[in-house]
Amino acid sequence: MPASVLKNPWRLLLAINAAIIVGVFVHKIQLPPYVPYIHLLVDYHFGFIKRALIGAVVALFTNKVPVWLVFTLGGVTWLVTLALFVRLFQKTFGFTAKTLPLFVFIAGSPFFLKNFMHTLGHFDIYGCALAMILLLMPAGSLLFVATAALFSIVLVLIHHIHLLMYVPTIIAIVVIRHYLACGCNRSNVTFGTIAFLLVSALFFAAQFLGTMPIPEADFVAYLKTRMADPSRTDLLQFSYIWYQPLAKEISDTWGRLPHNILGVPVFALLIWLHTPLWRYFASLIGALASETHRRLVVAALIGVSLAYLVMFAMVFDYSRWISNWAVCLFLILHAVKMLPAKQETPPIPAEHRNTNIFGLVITLIPRVGIVRPF
After folding, report:
1. DSSP classification of residue 346
2. Which of 98, 111, 59 is closest to 352 using CA atoms?
3. pTM of the entire structure?
């Protein structure tokens, strides 16, 4: 291998990441899409219920849902998310030799696009995509706040856990891009407060009033009428989640905790491998022109992290949660870069030996997983 590539391997690492993503996709389509498929079957046929928006939208176009639709819909959503991220990175940092290491650390992170490919069809990616749209939109009017509220409502209707997963990040983006940039006045503060209360009320309605109102056997019978192949009853094994109360979810999570907690050192290692990125993020925050901005950004990071801590105690898909937590930090990093700074932050060094090693390792890790690492 040429010495120049060893010294500055970022283009090669980008190509390796692309190849790994293709490999993850090939592996993914060989697995049964249990949860993603059943989410395409459930709609509002029996009234307002949780986790039904995507299925209701699908029902507008087809009465019978084929299995391949999981991969088609998930693949299109993944491609849209990739396009949004490329546009966002171009807008925020630009594509140059100096910014390429930063792009590889984010785009090539096993927390981000590679793990979204592994979880193809799950609902996590929708929060990321909508948050990136907010980062690309003009933020100077109440239309921006209203759009953020609408996106939050859509996410809660897709799955109410988004109130902890991506809604806090959306709030952070709104605060950073609108309230810090435009200032606070009675109208925008009142509007934002009402929007937050509406989203919160919708969450509680979905969590406590969105249980399926009919016996599970009748529910499964209805789902079969929506299946292109009703003989695939193995794809309906997760129908119980529309009946499971919050107390049962928490009980299951804590019951699995002794086994799942073994993955924490692996998560810590994966986070540590992103050290050059975290150092750059800390430098961005430190370079902000306003002390108030610095404190509010730190408070936003703590708030987002606490929301994930609550989610960790409630639902046991730890690999997904830690991955989405990292993605939320990536998104907030872009928002912070849009704030006024007192000085330019030096980019991640492109030819530093340790940085190159970290970049190579995270590139070679294909994904984080869903419940346990890998």
Report:
1. P
2. 98
3. 0.94
CB-CB contact of 351 with 7 (8 Å): yes
Lookup: tokens for 244: 């499971």
Place of tokens 């898909």: 317
The backbone torsions φ and ψ at residue 371, rounded to the nearest 5 degrees and listed phi first, read -110, -60
Instruction: Give the model confidence (pLDDT) of 285-300 as tens digits.
Output: 999 999 999 999 999 9
Question: What is the Cα–Cα distance from 371 to 322, expressed in whole angstroms?
Answer: 10
d(CA 60, CA 124): 22
At residue 349, what is the residue type? P
Q: Any idea which residue has 């993914």 for tokens?
A: 28
Contact call for residues 212 and 46 (beta carbons, < 8 A): yes
How far is residue 156's CA from residue 173's CA, in Å, rounded to a whole number?
17
- pLDDT of residue 1 exceeding 80: no
Is-contact 260 252, C-beta < 8 A? no
How far is 262 from 373, CA to CA, in rounded Å? 9
